[in-house]
Amino acid sequence: QVQLVESGGGLVQAGGSLRLSCAASGRTFSSYTMGWFRQAPGKEREFVARISRSGGSPYYADSVKGRFTISRDNAKKMVYLQMNSLKPDDTAVYYCNNVPPNRDYWGQGTQVTVSS
User: What is the band of 41 on the pLDDT scale with cuts at 50, 70, 90?
Assistant: First the structure.
């Protein structure tokens, strides 16, 4: 069974930075493409970024391209999201999951709030 635990969120001013972390359990972590997703109040959950099993081929939503960087450490079973130049529109709960996401793996997420 896989568990995903996100951390690193917080309150930051526009233009600031945060680094999110996702700790995964389970022996098959390195077998999956991993991604970050987010859900803003009153909106559907949306894709943010993904990274291949080997840590290459990062891909980003247009809304975060050039500002966010996804990375992973398979030895530590960790996925990271470095978020720079944050905007109020980035305010959301951020989740990690496989890509495509497994509905059984959604964790609690981590809240990111960007003030203007």
Answer: very high
Query: What pLDDT does residue 87 have?
Result: 98
Strands of 59-60's sheet in order across: 10-13, 110-115, 92-98, 34-39, 46-51, 59-60
Distance in angstroms (rounded) separating the CA atoms of residues 73 and 50 = 14
For the chain, counts of helices (H) and of strands (E): 0, 10
- What does the pLDDT read at residue 27? 76
Listed in sequence order, the residues at least 6 apart from 34 whose beta carbon sits closer than 8 Å to its beta carbon are: 22, 24, 50, 51, 72, 79, 96, 97, 98, 99
Work out the average pLDDT over 9-23: 98
Compare 74 and 2 and report the one with higher pLDDT.
Answer: 74
- For residue 39, the cross-strand partners are 93
Q: Could you tell me which of 50, 3, 37, 38 has the C-alpha nearest to residue 23?
A: 3
- 65 residue type, one letter: K
Residue 63 in 3-state DSSP? coil
